[in-house]
Specification:
With 273 residues, the chain is α+β, with helices and mostly antiparallel strands. It has two domains: 187 residues, no CATH class; 65 residues, SH3 type barrels. It is 35% helix and 25% strand. It has eight helices and ten strands. The strands form three sheets. A five-stranded antiparallel sheet has the order 9-8-7-6-10. Strands 1-3-2 form a three-stranded mixed sheet. A two-stranded antiparallel sheet has the order 4-5. A hairpin with a 5-residue loop joins strand 8 and strand 9. Helix 1 runs antiparallel to helix 6, helix 2 runs antiparallel to helix 3 and helix 3 crosses helix 6. The N terminus is likely disordered. The structure holds zinc ion. Zinc ion binds next to helix 6.
Length: 273
């Protein structure tokens, strides 16, 4: 029998020093990380009906679920699902989001008191940005890094994004909070995934717009909207461009003028000199 403070011993729900020890016990060399993540790469291609090639063009939330299972097995010795189970938060949520246009992924933890009990109800969710994923390895040709490591196709990019989010999940499970700019996160990310950094330079809609359509923020553009040709200035680029068109019917802006805002798909914009 092992002692109660043995890090391999599961504990009750919620963050705890035991959980922190069980997560900090995970340590892989850079070679081992490569080997294990390559195994996951091959497994995803072999098993997913969506991911046919490294630069896949379809993905479903179910693929994120498979990815989670593979990572929990290869890198976390099943500890993530064990802790989720202790928190009665299994299955956890996985979502593909077109709305994340700067962050490549997002991990959330929600806690709610259970009425009439002293315990908490936990919920975890990981979202991955399809906008960044599908915007990368398309029109823009350059080296792309995620987590400080160069990635060569969409699946590798997805893996690095997912690894980052799994570290957030691990921190939530062990510490109850998470911050990828803090020392604790950096240390976990080096031990488990050999990540060099916590940022990405995936192709954002803004960069995509420049390369594919020659359009940047501040450009004067024209477009047709409900049969009327409008002229305005690009104010922001997310999935679409937001274009400000001067009009007495518009909202007042800080420059003292009034503007209507239009959300226009980039291919519909024509740049004006
Ligand atoms: Zn982060």
């Amino acid at each position: 029998m092992e002692g109660a403070d043995d890090p391999s011993e599961p504990t009750g729900p919620g963050p705890s020093p035991q959980r922190q020890a069980r997560l900090f016990a995970l340590l892989y060399s850079a070679e081992e990380v490569q080997l294990r993540s390559r195994r996951i790469y091959e497994e995803m291609l072999a098993r997913s009906p969506n991911l046919q090639t490294g630069n896949f063009t379809r993905i479903g939330a179910h693929d994120l679920e498979s990815l989670f299972a593979a990572y929990d097995r290869e890198f976390f010795r099943g500890r993530l699902s064990e802790m989720l189970l202790e928190d009665r938060a299994l299955p956890m949520g996985f979502r593909l989001s077109g709305r994340l246009v700067r962050a490549a992924g997002m991990t959330t933890r929600t806690t709610r008191p259970i009425p009439g009990k002293s315990e908490l109800e936990y919920e975890y969710e990981i979202s991955v940005s399809t906008t960044l994923l599908f915007g990368t390895f398309r029109d823009v040709e350059r080296a792309v890094t995620v987590g400080g490591l160069e990635v060569h196709d969409r699946l590798e990019a997805l893996q690095r994004i997912f690894e980052h989010e799994l570290l957030h999940l691990a921190e939530f499970l062990g510490w109850g909070k998470s911050n990828c700019r803090a020392a604790n996160f950096r240390s976990l990310s080096r031990r488990i995934f050999a990540h060099e950094a916590a940022y990405h330079d995936l192709v954002t809609p803004r960069e995509q717009a420049v390369v594919a359509h020659g359009i940047t923020v501040g450009d004067r553009v024209t477009f047709e909207h409900e049969g009327i040709r409008r002229v305005g200035r690009v104010n922001r680029i997310t999935r679409r461009a937001s274009v400000l068109v001067e009009s007495p019917d518009g909202r007042p802006f800080s420059d003292g003028k009034r503007y209507l805002t239009f959300y226009v798909p980039l291919p519909m914009l024509q740049k004006l000199p």
